[in-house]
Amino acid sequence: MTQTHDSDDGPTDTTHSTDVDLEIDAASERDPLFARIPRRDFMKAGMAAGAVGAMGSLAGCTSILDRDGSVSIDDVDTDVAPGELDEYYAFLSGGHSGEVRVYGVPSMRQLMRIPVFSKESARGYGYDDETREMLEESGGYTWGDVHHPRVSQTDNEYDGRWLFVNDKANGRLARIDLTYFETDAIVDLPNQQGTHGACALMPDTKYIFGVGEFRVPLPNDGRNLDDPEEYTSVLSAVDPETMNPVFDVLVDGNMDNADSGKDGRWFFGTCYNSEEAVTESEMTRSDTDYVQAFDIPAIEDAVENGDYEEIDGVPVVDGTKDSSLNGGDSPIVHYIDVPSNPHGVTVTPDGSYAIASGKLDNTCSVIDIARLDEVDDLTDAIVGQPELGMGPLHTRYDDRGHAYTSLFIDSQVVKWDIERAVDSEPGSDEAVVDRIDVHYSPGHLNTSQSYTADPRGDWLISLNKHSMDRFLPVGPTFPVNDQLIYIGDDEEGMQLVKDTPGHPEPHDATIVHRDNIEPETVYDPDDLELDQIGLDETGIEREDGRVHVKMYNQRNHFGHDTVTVEEGDEVTITTTNIESAENIVHSLAIPQYDINVKTAPQETREVTFTADKPGVYWMYCAYFCSALHLEMRSRLLVEPKED
Ligand code: RUQ
Ligand code: CUA
Ligand code: CA
Fold it and tell me: Domain Cytochrome oxidase subunit II copper A binding: where (predicted)?
């Protein structure tokens, strides 16, 4: 399953220069036939004729992977000139836009948007049968709330297979296939409402965890409506290959953010509602809440031994404090008291500490993971509690022993030394080595390769909720501000490099080196479920009021100039983009039937609709694919029914 990557021939060799493109377009303009020759051949022809422009290339000397220790920003290329490629991908959650955004780092250029929980017409997402059914079968909601994008790992390193995200709104998890940068599975978690964290068990992505924030009755079928003590919150484990739930763990309190240890044993969550309350004032009443530490092999044993209750088809293991499974020598869930209402929790790259951010407390709590097995009082596993500033929310890491914590209220990122925090008195600020103002109110932050065992320590993105005066005003709904900060220089400290406005509203990001991802640039038909429709395979088959139209599409036409059906027919159109040249995307739009199906080269899609409106309907290609793009259209004739 694990992909291998050859860092020497990454995306560079698949790009082509703007000069060459212009050449092709000019040629197609002169002679429409010219445009039907695969673009690849053109490029070769163009190159042979000496028309080679500057090929896309990795930005100058951006990479500081070979460096030892800190590197001055003067030795780092922070600009990515036109035609150059970024060193990193950043995957940003799109919040309640229901999508994921892909940025290049350090340019902060938006490279792509990946729709997940909402339809998106330009990608044809939710318009063809397969994606429409996926959205319907996962609840039929029209939106979701994406907070946490996490890339799968093998041996604690990003492996480029998948990106997983949560849907806080409807209690779901989704998987994005990073070969094609598209959502390929969504699971509606049966016993969870408000899935907040989304993380995987490391080192090898054994499970994806949905982290339940909202407490509700279980099952939520009308019982215990106004009986909050009876409400529950669960951690849900999902198999990353099948995307089926494997088990749930019932907890006391609720769960907010989460992260995995590095050795397959521990998984950590924060709980801000140990009060099990339903109002804000009650949820902040107690001086302490929890970090929950889940002993995953112990939970697996409980499932194996049948120590569970099956609810909605999922084995639910009781991990509450009073559970018999928590009574003995090896409790399945440890509840570690930390200061009131913690928020983020992350594990350090070496796997030794879980660090929880205080939110209402000005400290982070450094939990020594090895001590969880040794201490009687779990608070003795907290080995450091540095004072950082107001509103600490999330913490990430570099490769030099530093942690970086966002301070929501102070509008700062604070850099601190983890070992120094362990050595100093709780509540002291001795561990702090640097602070930088950000603009404004950072929620998450992230650093390059931060969730792996091997962070790079060069870039940090601060995902600021507020942008105030940083951009031209665009009305009362403000963009967020994703700020790029260089963190590679320990002497000079953190340096702000870029402001980037963003559509509401990203929460978190994962920054992945380009060598860890290997996207296809043309579909491999073997990866798709539908058979391709080739040049000789077009046809219109009719059987009992069902019509199957098979047609290819290519520059500059569809496989049928005219498709005739009868009013009331159920029509399925299978359409294949038979181009093999990169970058030539077409779509099949049938506007009055609310259809727009995208096909990239070698992609096959299918769409079904009822032809219930007699008349002439122009089907057209909505991607500007060639000089004769406007001519790429066919008629759908819907004959009125004869009585
Ligand atoms: S949360 S701003 Cu949804 Cu990750 Cu902390
Ligand atoms: Cu195909 Cu426009
Ligand atoms: Ca609380």
Answer: 544-643
